[in-house]
Amino acid sequence: MTEKVDETRYNGIGKVGSPACGDELRVWLKVDSQTEKIKEFHWRTFGCGSAIAATSITSEMVTENGGMTLEEARKMKPQDIIIRLGGLPARKIHCSVLCDKALRDAINDYYRRAKQFDKIVGEASRVVDPVSKVTDHDIEQAVKDGARTLEVVQQKTKVGIGNPACLPAVEELIKFYIEKYF
User: Fold this and answer.
1) What is the 3-state secondary structure (H, E, C) of the chain?
2) Which of 31, 127, 151, 167 has its CA 20 to 30 A from that of 112?
3) How would residue 1 be classed by pLDDT, with cut points 50, 70 and 90?
4) How far is CA 93 from CA 9, 19, 155, 157, in A?
5) Which residues are known catalytic residues?
6) Do 99 and 113 meet the contact criterion of CB atoms below 8 Å apart?
7) What is the pLDDT of residues 62-97, one digit of tens each?
8) What domains does the chain contain, in order, with CATH numbers?
9) pLDDT for 111 beyond 50
């Protein structure tokens, strides 16, 4: 699928990517503003077959039977996607996590566009370095603030100073956030 998506048709857009596996998901929602039900779910997934399958089944789940409300869709868990798929290999579980994150990102985007800011729910951060308690959000913020190398990110966050085992993951996150924002 290489055609450009007409984003003006949709009122909620979400994107998530995983630097660890290279998968990237983009979803576009068309939400009925009166009922807050998802009427259309357009998607594009760049990645493995499991990521594609998880996104495809999610699109069916949120639009069948007249569509889920945004609140119902927000409660969807990766386990729901995995069950509906009939399972995923253990090393592919992250694909369902990416899919539900993209969906929640699109839901938040809908609420942002509708100026219903009180309904926006932030994503929890993941701890990347348990020794220094640095999260993926901390690394993202450092990159947004100008850090483009591991050394500068370490100066700003202290990530990996007492735990060098986390540095490969940090380098992947840095690359991911540079691509995302610049």
Assistant:
1) CCCCCCHHHCCEEEEEECCCCCCEEEEEEEEECCCCEEEEEEEEEECCHHHHHHHHHHHHHHHHHHCCEHHHHHCCCHHHHHHHHCCCCHHHHHHHHHHHHHHHHHHHHHHHHCCCHHHCCCCCCCEEECCCCEEHHHHHHHHHCCCCCHHHHHHHHCCCCCCHHHHHHHHHHHHHHHHHHC
2) 127
3) very low
4) 31, 15, 33, 29
5) 21, 95
6) no
7) 999 999 999 999 999 888 998 999 998 877 777 766
8) 7-119 (3.90.1010.10), 127-181 (1.10.10.1100)
9) yes
Whole-angstrom Cα distance, residue 117 to residue 115?
5
What separation in angstroms does the CA of 174 have from each of 4, 64, 138, 153, 177?
Answer: 28, 38, 11, 8, 5
Which of 68, 106, 69, 62 has the alpha carbon at shortest distance from 84? 62
Q: Give residue 119's identity as a one-letter amino acid code.
A: K
